Amino acid sequence: MPMLYIKCPKTGKPVPTGMNVSKGMDLSGFSNNGVNCPHCNQIHYWNGRDGFFLDDK
Ligand SMILES: [Zn+2]
Hints:
The protein has 57 residues and is mainly β. The protein has one domain. The protein has no helices and five strands. The chain is globular. Zinc ion (ZN) binds next to loops.
């Protein structure tokens, strides 16, 4: 299953959430998850609607 990413609000770069989910999955169940951002070294909190996949393979 593909990795779910969020966008870093500071750098605009994709941040892997550590969650592998299927693309058809309803992401609305994810809320207030914290991920340690490798770009700016801060924790970003994200909801399911923030998530995206890096490629469409
Ligand atoms: Zn960041």
